[in-house]
Design brief:
The complex is a heterodimer of chains A (314) and B (366). Chain A has eleven helices and 14 strands. Helix content of chain A is 37%, strand content 29%. Chain B is of the alpha/beta class and 366 residues long. Classes of the chains: A alpha/beta (314), B alpha/beta (366). Chains A and B meet through helix 3 of A and helix 1 and helix 8 of B.
């Protein structure tokens, strides 16, 4: 067992009937880091997380989580992992205090520890004022703080968060991520799935999933640096016309409109992408400014999923 | 030790949830009270005052006396008069009367003849209880102006009614009803217990904790055992005070029998809970268990009257055994030791359903 690796998978695969939800995924997730799963709905993020928890058996391949073979040794793993489900899964008809007490007991925390942990959780996650309230009367952000408090009550080494911020306002999301970094600082490993680019960018390392296939796996910075395209930003008087003109050019991978501007992805084979785009627009009689810029994570996402689709189609 | 702690955690959570679930709380108290009162007051198998019609074609003093005597038995109330038997048949068909008395024109001559009935009763046999009640009328004597019979036409048998000499229906019904009510509520409680967690998404969280399946099952059953015993107490109290149901046996024996029976029903509910995907399905499946229970247990119809194969099915159902236990202890004053085979059957049912439920339940989502 490697002390620095929390999760390792080898050709992890899950099929539901004829659909392959997770397709031969190989992962190596380091300890004490936030590792992100980025992908649209149905890309296999939840299925992978559930397989790593031992909730779903893989059709093929294997996984080792904190040194335990999953799903064979899933039961002995339960005590060391925390899991925050995509849908709020604590009891809506129990108060915050009761939910936390239940979780503390079900993890068999010693009596003395139970009280101090619950007290600390109420303080750390700003839940004290809600301790007598039921989740059904709380906001998305408050409920999510409760879910995280419950998932970390037994001090797990590894935390699985399945789209934790999907029902949460932007400020709560920011606060939530601050908390995650505090947890990582304590040595906890976090695996978080998301479909928000800004969240993905905050992860130490990121896996991009597309239709169950791992299409990219690196730090967000490396992914942006190594992107297999050049990014050109275009400001045109008539963006619609510019768009049509650009789409007919051979070396253009994609065009995305952002308000008045267009973000254009150009093949890396083109040495001077800015000039290439400007020339193309001039030839079509469109007045525009074009200049090369640095790639964003969304650009990376567009490129890798596009490449994957082309490969799949070929 | 940890195991006990986890069972207690589940148990406490169930009680917290139950306390806030007004509908279920209402069910715990409401269903037994309502059923006992409905069955006890409304249901009477000792039927009186059946609506009757008379076609007295003889219209002699003897025939009029017979009609008057028949009505005096209180079994019938004469509400219709007819001229012909055909008219009575029409009334019977229309449901206007349940019994028709036909006295033919040659009534008195027929009375003289041995071995032949002088008059006829037309009975609505579509209801067996009415038929049974009307049969009592055949015992009405006609001795007027007749030559004394050479032999005294007394019955060979005399009936001694043990355990229910006043023939009160409540005494027949309520001991079995105790089991029916417990079956109705207990199975449903645990049938929805796990499905509800699945439906509300709690199960995904729960199966990710170190809780073991038998611990989860135990934590789900125990609070309802207590509720079952509370229900049984409520039913017994109401029965004794409202309907003077005798407790001829030992009350502790009755509670022990109820405890095993309640547990058997709860484990059956857990088994259903591992089969159903939604609470709705669980309720439907519960119905498939409840219906044979109520029909085949001997609560409604005598066990001895059922065909052999149906008796075998009935022997599997917990209610069959509990009806015997309950009637035995309450009415016949039997000791639990004397009814040991019934307790054994319930215990086997409980162990089997619990084992299947535990084996079927997986701490997984697929």
């Amino acid at each position: 067992m490697n002390r620095d690796i929390a999760i390792r998978t080898h050709n992890l695969t899950r099929r539901f009937g004829t659909v392959t939800a997770v397709d031969h995924i190989n992962l190596e997730i380091p300890r004490a880091r936030i590792y992100g799963f980025l992908g649209p709905n149905g890309s296999g993020k939840s299925t992978t997380i559930r397989m790593l928890c031992g909730l779903i058996r893989p059709t093929e391949g294997e996984a080792e989580v904190l040194g335990h073979q999953v799903p064979r040794d899933a039961e002995s793993l339960k005590r060391s992992i925390g899991y925050m489900t995509q849908r709020f899964s604590l009891y809506q008809d129990l108060t915050v205090q009761e939910n936390l007490e239940f979780m503390a007991e079900i993890y068999s925390l010693p009596h003395a520890k139970r009280r101090t942990r619950i007290e600390r959780a109420l303080r750390d996650y700003q839940l004290r004022e809600f301790h007598d309230q039921r989740p059904e009367t709380m906001s998305g952000g408050e409920r999510q703080r409760l879910a995280l408090a419950a998932a970390t009550l037994h001090e797990p080494e590894l935390l699985f968060l399945d789209e934790p911020t999907s029902a949460v306002d932007p400020q709560s999301r920011r606060d939530f991520w601050e908390t995650l970094f505090a947890l990582v600082h304590q040595g906890i490993t976090i695996l978080v799935s998301t479909h928000y680019m800004d969240e993905a960018e905050r992860c130490h390392r990121l896996a991009i999933l597309d239709h169950g296939v791992l299409v990219a796996d690196d730090s967000p910075q490396q992914l942006m640096t190594n992107i297999d395209a050049s990014v050109v930003e275009v400001e045109a008087s008539d963006s619609q016309q510019a768009r049509v003109a650009l789409n007919s050019l051979a070396k253009i991978q994609s065009v995305t409109q952002l308000g008045m501007r267009l973000r254009v992805l150009v093949d890396r084979t083109e040495a001077e992408p800015g000039k290439y785009v400007a020339a193309g627009l001039r030839a079509a009689g469109v007045k525009a400014n074009a200049r090369q810029t640095s790639a964003s994570l969304e650009d990376v996402f567009v490129v890798v999923t596009r490449q994957h689709h082309e490969k799949a189609a070929a | 030790m940890n195991s006990l702690l986890r069972i207690l955690a589940i148990l406490r959570k169930e009680i917290w949830q139950l306390r806030r679930d007004r509908l279920t709380m209402g069910m715990i108290i409401g269903i037994p009270t309502l059923q006992i009162i409905l069955f006890g007051f409304a249901i009477n198998t000792d039927v009186r005052h059946l609506r009757a019609g008379v076609a007295d074609q003889a219209n002699t003093q003897v025939s009029r006396t017979l009609v008057a005597d028949t009505e005096a038995s209180q079994v019938i109330n004469i509400t219709q008069r007819a001229l012909t038997p055909e008219e009575l048949e029409t009334m019977l068909r229309r449901g206007e009367i349940s019994v028709g008395i036909v006295i033919p024109p040659d009534f008195e001559r027929r009375l003289q003849q041995q071995g032949r009935a002088a008059a006829q009763l037309l009975v609505d046999g579509s209801d067996p209880i009415i038929l049974g009640a009307a049969r009592q009328l055949t015992a009405v004597p006609v001795n007027y102006r007749l030559p004394p019979s050479p032999i005294k036409s007394a019955s060979v048998y005399e009936v001694r009614n043990f355990y229910n000499p006043e023939r009160r229906s409540a005494v027949n019904i309520i001991p079995g009803l105790l089991g029916v009510i417990l079956t109705m509520t207990m199975v449903l409680f645990t049938a929805i217990a796990i499905v509800r967690e699945r439906e509300r998404g709690n199960l995904e969280l729960l199966i990710n904790t170190p809780v073991r399946t038998p611990e989860l099952m135990a934590g789900k059953i125990l609070p309802y055992v207590l509720i079952g015993l509370i229900q049984a107490t409520l039913i017994i109290t109401l029965s004794v005070f409202l309907f003077r149901i005798p407790i001829r046996g030992n009350l502790l024996d009755l509670y022990l029998a109820a405890l095993v029976f309640i547990s058997a029903n709860l484990t059956m509910g857990l088994f259903i809970s591992t089969l159903a995907k939604t609470q709705m399905q669980a309720m439907q499946m519960n119905f498939f268990f409840f219906l044979p229970s109520i029909l085949l247990s001997g609560f409604m119809f005598p066990f001895d009257g059922m065909p052999g194969i149906v008796q075998h099915i009935a022997e599997i159902l917990p209610l069959t055994h509990f009806v015997r236990l309950s009637r035995g202890i309450l009415l016949r004053g039997a000791a639990l030791i004397e009814l040991l085979p019934e307790i054994r059957a319930l215990a086997i049912f409980m162990v089997v359903t619990l084992t299947i439920a535990i084996l079927r339940f997986r701490k997984r989502l697929d």
